[in-house]
């Protein structure tokens, strides 16, 4: 799943490619991906892209005051092309969900496809006049990379710190992968209760949130969309590396599997050597 660093890099990539170009057409291949009806997609035709910004894990294309907002969910992605085929797309059930065709001055030949792998569909597109009309954006918590971000008040909750970091209504932009990385850097158990953290643990967590995300964003910046997934996997130290050796302490990275996701951690670095049991629980995943 793309998280803040990858989405931020995609936003930068799209800003460089799209700003100044005119929307020639938005071709919808999957009706299910479009979550709004007003304004219609046809209203974007002939308007210029004026900016591309990020709200948490949402991508917002400002098209002369109208907004095309994209949430890539778990398996969505953006596939850019400098030479789109002239033929129109057909409705279908494949991975292709939508195409944005742009005219950068020499005809409607550039743009990007929105794709989604797998059968569980979560990719979402919103055509709105104000990004705050998107429920997910309206409910977002503070951005952890904002200059005034303060983690301490957000921790006053009786909930597992892993779950808190992933809750978009509490903190915007962090998902399963980077919450694993942050907790490893902070030397905290994913099952630690947020309101019970000691001052030194909070200090480590604050430092880890900023440093892990800042480093990931710096490493992702400037990369084309096609390279971001592999680059993310390569930088992970614990996430997705169950059974491998922790490069900090040499212990074996462990995994806790839930009904539709998993987390990875290092026992020596994070839990005092304790092996966490699998605890399939809907409460943890909310």
TrEMBL record:
Q: Which reaction does it catalyse?
A: Hydrolysis of DNA containing ring-opened 7-methylguanine residues, releasing 2,6-diamino-4-hydroxy-5-(N-methyl)formamidopyrimidine
GO MF, one annotated term: DNA-(apurinic or apyrimidinic site) endonuclease activity
Keywords attached to this Swiss-Prot or TrEMBL record, sorted alphabetically, are: DNA damage, DNA repair, DNA-binding, Glycosidase, Hydrolase, Lyase, Metal-binding, Multifunctional enzyme, Zinc, Zinc-finger
A Pfam match is: zf-FPG_IleRS
Q: Which InterPro entries does its entry note?
A: FPG_cat, FPG_N, H2TH_FPG, Ribosomal_uS13-like_H2TH, Znf_DNA_glyclase/AP_lyase, Znf_FPG/IleRS
FPG-type domain span: 237-271
Name all Formamidopyrimidine-DNA glycosylase catalytic domain ranges: 2-94
Names of required cofactors:
Zn(2+)
Highest taxon of the lineage: Bacteria
A GO BP term here is:
base-excision repair
Per the similarity annotation, which family is this? Belongs to the FPG family.
- Report the PANTHER family cross-referenced here: FORMAMIDOPYRIMIDINE-DNA GLYCOSYLASE (PTHR22993)
Name of the featured protein: Fpg/Nei family DNA glycosylase
User: Source taxonomy lineage?
Assistant: Bacteria, Bacillati, Actinomycetota, Actinomycetes, Propionibacteriales
């Amino acid at each position: 799943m793309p998280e803040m660093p990858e989405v931020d890099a995609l936003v930068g990539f799209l800003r460089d490619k799209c700003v100044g170009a005119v929307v020639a057409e938005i071709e919808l291949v999957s009706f299910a991906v479009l979550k709004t009806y007003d304004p219609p997609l046809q209203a974007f035709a002939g308007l210029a892209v004026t900016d591309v910004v990020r709200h948490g894990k949402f991508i917002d294309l400002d098209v002369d005051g109208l907004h095309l907002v994209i949430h890539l969910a778990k398996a969505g992605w953006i596939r850019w092309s400098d030479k789109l085929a002239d033929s129109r797309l057909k409705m279908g059930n494949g991975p292709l969900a939508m195409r944005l065709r742009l005219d950068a001055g020499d005809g409607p030949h550039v743009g990007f496809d929105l794709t989604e792998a797998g059968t569980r569909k979560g990719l979402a597109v919103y055509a709105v006049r104000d990004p705050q009309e998107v429920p997910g954006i309206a409910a977002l918590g503070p951005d952890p990379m904002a200059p005034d971000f303060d983690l301490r008040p957000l921790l006053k909750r009786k909930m597992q710190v892993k779950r808190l970091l992933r809750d978009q209504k509490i903190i915007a932009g962090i998902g399963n992968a980077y919450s694993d990385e942050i907790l490893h850097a902070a030397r905290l158990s994913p099952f630690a209760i947020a309101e019970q953290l000691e001052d030194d643990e909070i200090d480590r967590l604050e430092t880890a949130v900023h440093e892990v995300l800042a480093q990931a964003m710096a490493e992702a910046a400037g990369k084309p969309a096609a390279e971001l997934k592999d680059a993310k996997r390569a930088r992970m130290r614990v996430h997705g590396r169950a059974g491998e050796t922790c490069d900090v302490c040499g212990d074996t990275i462990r995994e806790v599997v839930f009904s539709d996701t998993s987390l990875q951690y290092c026992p020596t670095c994070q839990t005092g050597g304790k092996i966490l049991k699998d605890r399939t629980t809907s409460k943890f995943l909310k």
